[in-house]
Amino acid sequence: MKLYGRSHDRQSLARHAGDLSAAGGVRAVVLDDGSERGIRTLEFRTGGGLSFDVLVDRAMDLGGAEFEGRGFGWRSATGFRHPGLHEYRDDDGLSMMRSFSGLLLTAGLDHTLFGAEVDASQYRYPPRGTAVHALHGRVANLPARLTGYGERWQEDGRCVLWAEGEVRQAAIFGEHLRLTRRIEADLGGSEIRLTDRVRNAGFDPTPHMYLYHVNVGWPFLDEGARYELPPHRTLWRSDSVAEQGVSHTAMPAPLPGFVEQVYEHELEPDAAGLARPRLVNERLGVYFELEFDTVRFPSFFQWLHLREGAYAVGFEPSTHHVQGEAAAREDGSMTFLAPGEEREYTTAFRVGHLD
C-alpha cells in the first residue's frame, strides 16, 4: 500500500511505528456536547487522505467526511442530533429536517420519500389498520448494536479498516426488519465500501423501500463545480426546475431563497450494472464519486439544495420511483419481503484527485 509517498507492507509499517494508529485506523469516541451529546461514533482515518465518521447511534450512517483536510460530507445547521431527541411525526411528518446532516442518511426500512398513510392489514391487528409514515421513514434515527470494528490484515497484504453493526426496526403487530451494515476502507485508500443486508425477521409479508441520501457540501461543492451524470434519461422534475431555471450540472454559488430542485434520472449502467455519478471541482482538483448497483437501485434522484446557509447536492439511489409508496402499491411495483427474505446492497463512495 502507498502511505505518505512510500510503499509499505505489514512488516515495514511495524518497523516504522509501534502502533498502526500512526498510519490510520478506527477509533471509538462519544460526542459530548449540545444536541449531539451521547452519540457513539467511529472515527476512520485511512492515511490516504480520507477521514470520516460513522454515527453508530444514527443507524451507522456517515457523518463528517474529509479528503486531505477538505470537507465533502455535508454539514447542516442541525448537527448530528441524538436520536433520543427525535419525534417521528413532528412538523407534520417533516421531522427528519431537524436531524438532517452528514455524508449519508439512510431512508427506509419500510418507507421512503414523503409521508403516507397506507394499509397495514397484513399485520392482522384491527386497532392498527393503517401505518402512518413520515418523510424517509424511521431507520436513520435508530441506534445500531455495534458488533465489531477495527483493523484487519488480509491475505493479499491489504489492511482493511472495518465496522459492523445491526439496526432493528420492529413493532408489536408491525414490521420486524433488521439492517446489518458493514463499512470498510483500505489503509492508504480513498474509498468507502458499504454493504447492507435488510432482512424480514418477522413472520408477516412486510413492505420494504430503501434509499441512500448521499449529501456533498462545501468546499467540494462550490461555484463552478460540475455534477456529472452517466448517459441518462430524465423521468421527472420538480416544479421548481422550470420556475428557477438553475442548471443541474453547473453549480452556482449559494443562492438566496433557493427552492430545492429534484430530478429523477434513469442512468445507463456499465456492463457490470453499475452507475457512477460524480461531483467534480476543477479549482480544487478533486472529485467525489458514488458507485451503486442499478439492479438493486433502479431509480436515481438528483437533489440540488443550493440555498445559502444549507448548500448541498444530493445523490439518491432508490428502490422505488419518486411518486412514493402509495403510487408503488397502486401500480404493483411495491416490494414486500416474505418472512426470512433478505436484500443486499453494495455501494462505494470515492474521492480523489483529477488526472
From TrEMBL:
Task: Please give the InterPro entries that the UniProt record associates with this protein.
Answer: DUF4432 (IPR027839), Gal_mutarotase_sf_dom (IPR011013), GH-type_carb-bd (IPR014718)
Instruction: Enumerate the Gene Ontology biological process terms.
Output: carbohydrate metabolic process
- Origin: domain of life: Bacteria
Entry GO MF terms: carbohydrate binding; catalytic activity
The protein, known as: Aldose 1-epimerase family protein
Origin species? Streptomyces coelicolor (strain ATCC BAA-471 / A3(2) / M145)
